[in-house]
Amino acid sequence: MTEKEPHHRRIRSFVRREGRFTPGQQRAFDTLWPQYGIEADGSPIDFDAVFGHRAPRIVEIGFGNGESLAAMAASHPENDYLGIEVHRPGVGRLLQQLETEHIANVRVMSEDAVEILERQIPDTSLHGLLLFFPDPWHKKRHHKRRILQPAFVQLVRRKLEPGGFFHMATDWENYAEQMLEVMSAAEGFTNTSPSSDFVPCPDYRPKTKFERRGERLGHGVWDLVFEKID
């Protein structure tokens, strides 16, 4: 009998904190999921079939309560958006907003974003990928849990079309510096910043109330936009 090789579990960049649904969020999750939700069943997504047309497709990972995602989708009906968020009350909050504001160009998934990218997002199918304010895992011993790692960057590269963009934003300076270091060393990407560092907040990224409050308190926010060049 041969000894089995040890099974190495992937380090996750998030902790699943379910929290409580409000009655409205629960209703939205129960009734609107069939309209807006895509199941994390491992099968490749046919975006043309899901949205009923062809358009630039943009994925946001970790959309929180969906405030920014809904605003982007409403302002840019020429794009289609897929939001991925493990916190289901946040998904319910976004579903409420999509229904109330009659936003039709958004679909939602509620599972580990890395697994969805690996298993369900076809290669070269995305025009853009958004990673706004991911968990900074600020303690040094937890930095390995940050989602922005070289292997993840190359996964994003596979999913982007040539000329597609990867937009990151964080309010942790240390994480911003790590993002810049990892992305600057990444094969297949070029920094869109003329100074090869950070860019002003693009017009399409809405600022949340938490970000605006942080700015009033003097907190910094760093945006990075890299383009796939091959």
UniProtKB/TrEMBL annotation:
<feature type="binding site">
    <location>
        <position position="60"/>
    </location>
    <ligand>
        <name>S-adenosyl-L-methionine</name>
    </ligand>
</feature>
<dbReference type="InterPro" id="IPR055361">
    <property type="entry name" value="tRNA_methyltr_TrmB_bact"/>
</dbReference>
<comment type="function">
    <text>Catalyzes the formation of N(7)-methylguanine at position 46 (m7G46) in tRNA.</text>
</comment>
<keyword id="KW-0949">S-adenosyl-L-methionine</keyword>
<keyword id="KW-0808">Transferase</keyword>
<feature type="binding site">
    <location>
        <position position="85"/>
    </location>
    <ligand>
        <name>S-adenosyl-L-methionine</name>
    </ligand>
</feature>
<protein>
    <recommendedName>
        <fullName>tRNA (guanine-N(7)-)-methyltransferase</fullName>
        <ecNumber>2.1.1.33</ecNumber>
    </recommendedName>
</protein>
<dbReference type="InterPro" id="IPR029063">
    <property type="entry name" value="SAM-dependent_MTases_sf"/>
</dbReference>
<keyword id="KW-0489">Methyltransferase</keyword>
<dbReference type="Pfam" id="PF02390">
    <property type="entry name" value="Methyltransf_4"/>
</dbReference>
<feature type="binding site">
    <location>
        <position position="135"/>
    </location>
    <ligand>
        <name>S-adenosyl-L-methionine</name>
    </ligand>
</feature>
<feature type="binding site">
    <location>
        <begin position="208"/>
        <end position="211"/>
    </location>
    <ligand>
        <name>substrate</name>
    </ligand>
</feature>
<keyword id="KW-0819">tRNA processing</keyword>
<feature type="binding site">
    <location>
        <position position="171"/>
    </location>
    <ligand>
        <name>substrate</name>
    </ligand>
</feature>
<feature type="binding site">
    <location>
        <position position="139"/>
    </location>
    <ligand>
        <name>substrate</name>
    </ligand>
</feature>
<dbReference type="GO" id="GO:0008176">
    <property type="term" value="F:tRNA (guanine(46)-N7)-methyltransferase activity"/>
</dbReference>
<feature type="binding site">
    <location>
        <position position="112"/>
    </location>
    <ligand>
        <name>S-adenosyl-L-methionine</name>
    </ligand>
</feature>
<dbReference type="InterPro" id="IPR003358">
    <property type="entry name" value="tRNA_(Gua-N-7)_MeTrfase_Trmb"/>
</dbReference>
<comment type="similarity">
    <text>Belongs to the class I-like SAM-binding methyltransferase superfamily. TrmB family.</text>
</comment>
<comment type="pathway">
    <text>tRNA modification; N(7)-methylguanine-tRNA biosynthesis.</text>
</comment>
<dbReference type="GO" id="GO:0043527">
    <property type="term" value="C:tRNA methyltransferase complex"/>
</dbReference>
